[in-house]
Amino acid sequence: MRSIGYDAASGTLEVEFHHGTVYRYRGVPRKVHEELVAADSIGRYFNAHVRDRYPFRRL
Questions:
Q1: How many CA atoms lie within 13 A of 17 on its CB side?
Q2: If exposure means fewest CB atoms within 10 Å of the residue's CB, which of 2, 15, 27, 40 is most exposed?
């Protein structure tokens, strides 16, 4: 992942991948964002705890 942004008020997680695609995930708890950015492997955590678990939109 190239960058990760989070809006706590709306629970929106925005992820930009290295190839330039950006996805916006809704309803993501603050704790999931905190654990994601602190993970030893962000990609592994993302795949296990975010991908396919929250509604998303490709931007």
A1: 11
A2: 40
